[in-house]
Design a protein that fits this description.
By secondary structure, the protein is α/β, with parallel strands linked by helices. The chain is built from six helices and ten strands; from the N terminus they run H-E-H-E-E-E-H-E-E-H-E-E-E-H-E-H. The chain has helices at 6-11, 23-31, 62-72, 100-109, 132-141, 162-177, and strands at residues 18-20, 37-39, 43-46, 49-55, 78-83, 90-92, 113-117, 122-123, 126-127, 146-150. Strands 3-4-5-6-7-10 form a six-stranded mixed sheet, with helices on one face. It has a two-stranded parallel ribbon with strand order 1-2. A two-stranded antiparallel sheet has the order 8-9. Strand 8 (122-123) and strand 9 form a beta hairpin. Helix 5 packs across helix 6 (162-177). It is globular. The N and C termini lie far apart (60 Å).
Length: 186
């Protein structure tokens, strides 16, 4: 469970509905005194909002996966997609890297807004979350969607700054739209 701390425990009302990814997180939060902790199914309805669970991959390679499982007892992660008839749809990637399932979910769900944990956070053995190149891949997959970059410059193991994302997007855009006169010589 990520970012569940004493501030959350003491601030959130104990009877507020809380949605979690699995039974392990559910039991942990119930042990903190919360009474309405629900494990998300692949699709979960809450009032007129549909939550769709989105698989994440919180490791770039087997070394990172092993470290997460040894140090934190899990390498599981998830994002979620929110849809309702009256509002724009939004997908939160959660802590993930770019991988086939993320691309497939983006293509299938076509969210209007994507909030990406994109600080490139990682350790010497590899990355944990999206970086600037991955943000551009999301833009290529969903050019019509509003992208919101999050998790940058906020945690001690970040590697991607806002300037880095801006520069990567700019360079990729220029490469696609700029031609030199030598490109047209015989």
């Amino acid at each position: 469970m990520d970012r569940w701390d004493s501030k959350a425990i003491n601030t959130i009302h104990k009877d507020m509905p809380i949605f979690v990814q699995d039974e392990v997180d559910q039991h942990s939060i119930i042990n903190d005194g919360f009474t309405d902790v629900r494990v998300m199914n692949m699709k979960t309805k809450f009032h007129n909002i549909t939550f769709t669970k989105v698989t994440g991959q919180h490791y770039e390679n087997s070394d990172v996966k092993k470290m997460l499982e040894n140090d934190f007892n899990t390498s599981k992660t998830m994002g979620f997609y929110l849809s309702t008839p009256s509002e724009k749809s939004i997908l939160f990637t959660g802590d993930t890297i770019w991988f086939d399932s993320l691309e497939n979910n983006l293509e299938d769900l076509k969210p209007d807004i994507v909030v990406m944990n994109s600080g490139g956070n990682g350790f010497s053995v590899g990355r944990l979350i999206l970086n600037a190149q991955d943000v551009f891949k999301i833009h290529e997959t969903l050019p019509q969607s509003l992208l919101i970059a999050s998790h940058m410059e906020a945690v001690n193991h970040w590697t991607t700054a806002q300037k880095s994302i801006n520069w990567t997007i700019f360079i990729q855009f220029i490469r696609r739209h700029l031609r030199y006169d030598c490109d047209y010589k015989n």
